[in-house]
Design goal:
The chain is α/β, with parallel strands linked by helices and 386 residues long. The protein is 39% helix and 14% strand. The protein contains 15 helices and ten strands. Bound molecules: beta-D-ribofuranose (BDR) and calcium ion. Calcium ion binds next to loops.
Length: 386
């Protein structure tokens, strides 16, 4: 296949594909992700919470080049690297994309209850795989990320979707500050979690591992959640070929994405990895833009916060998946009677029952498969488009 040709878009194709996605996204996103009763018309108001981060950087560039999105704010949080780096990295990226119209609000420096664990081993000391860009001149707004999230959600009740690409500290802080807020959020699409094992520990995916208490607040908030976890993001390895297409395109976003991508590929190879890095966060943005790129399954998802070895593990309960699967036809009855069971009580416990929730009600659409080719066509096509 001539990859260069298939990714290279003329301006007309870019506008046409964007318009097609606007329609498809408007129809399918509500149908597939159940994110609000009102008919979706786009552009969608979103806030992007992020910890740039190599894959965050490409995800932000993708979002800022997607006309379906009205990005109300970018809210950096400590995660892949400390806030002292994620904040200027976010500001650099809005400058590179020519989108200094988007407010950037500084977020949390540390998780709710834990010490910060970073991922410089994967993202390099500067968070961008070692790719160096000038110091940003743009300044963040004076409100903190959690205040700004609250402000925007209250300004546009039931209209704002949160797209989260890092630990969920900012979101949980905003929810904790305002008990009515969760009911006013249209939906939350996260890169985070896994139903098939972790990456930083065998149990936990990085974003949830860093702040499991925050993640639990979010999953239990009642906000309709779309989870794009390792189950699907493991299938999004950036290749040399992708980088070459980005390098050939003459726009500042593609040039920056290529520089970050090339550094990150080299960093991965130096560490002995034959593939990668995965574009985890870009897949979350792409899933919001076009949910038909993924297959979805309903789950009740909760987060382990007590484990000595397993904190940050995401558990997905479903009457129709995994070991809980039953004969076709029985699922409806089973869903009605299924309880959510946690660990058995210890002898010392005062609890008499391990049931932590009486009734099964799904709270999350989990991505269970992805068409990786379509994903990369969207990502590289938009970054490389004129
Ligand atoms: C997630 O962790 C971070 O390192 C990446 O940016 C992504 O958000 C993948 O586990
Ligand atoms: Ca991230």
């Amino acid at each position: 296949m001539d990859t260069k040709k298939s990714f290279d878009m003329t301006r007309r194709q870019f506008v046409m594909s964007s318009a097609a996605l606007l329609t498809a996204g408007a129809l399918t996103h509500d149908a597939v992700a159940s994110q609000g009763a009102a008919a979706a018309r786009g552009p969608f108001r979103v806030i992007i919470d992020t910890d740039p981060g190599v894959d965050d950087a490409l995800a932000l560039l993708l979002a800022m080049r997607s006309p379906e999105l009205k990005i109300e704010a970018i809210t950096p949080v400590a995660g892949n690297v400390p806030l002292e780096l994620t904040l200027p990295n976010a500001l650099r990226l809005v400058e590179i994309a020519g989108r200094t119209d988007i407010p950037v609000a500084a977020g949390a420096r540390a998780p709710l209850l834990r010490r910060l664990v970073t991922a410089t081993y994967a993202h390099g000391e500067n968070g961008l795989g070692g790719a160096v860009f000038p110091e940003p001149t743009t300044k963040p707004v004076s409100e903190s990320a959690s205040e700004y999230i609250r402000h925007i959600v209250r300004k546009y009740p039931h209209e704002v979707t949160l797209i989260t690409l890092g630990p969920l500290t900012n979101i949980a802080t905003a929810l904790n500050s305002d008990p009515e807020l969760a009911g006013m959020v249209r939906g939350l699409t996260m890169m985070g979690g896994s139903l098939s094992g972790g990456n930083i520990t065998p149990a936990a995916e990085f974003n949830i591992y860093v702040d499991p208490e925050a993640a639990r607040i979010v999953f239990q908030s009642g906000i309709p959640i779309t989870m794009v976890g390792l189950d699907v993001t493991r299938k999004t390895s950036l290749t040399e070929e992708h980088v070459r297409v980005l390098e050939a395109a003459q726009n500042p976003a593609s040039q920056a994405a290529a520089k970050i991508g090339r550094n990150a590929i080299n960093h991965n190879r130096d560490r002995g990895f034959l593939v990668g890095p995965n574009m985890h966060d870009s897949l979350a943005v792409a899933a919001f833009l076009d949910p038909t790129i993924l297959k979805w399954q309903d789950y009740y998802v909760d987060v382990e916060v007590a484990g000595e070895l397993t904190a940050g593990e995401t558990l997905g309960y479903s009457p129709v998946a995994g070991d809980l699967k039953r004969r076709p036809g029985m699922e409806k009855d089973l869903a009605a009677s299924m309880t959510i069971r946690g660990s058995a009580p210890t002898l010392a416990s005062t609890k008499t029952s391990p049931v932590v929730r009486e009734k099964y009600v799904p709270n999350t659409k989990v991505g269970i498969d992805v068409d990786s080719s379509r994903f990369f066509e969207l990502l590289i096509g938009r970054l490389a488009g004129k």
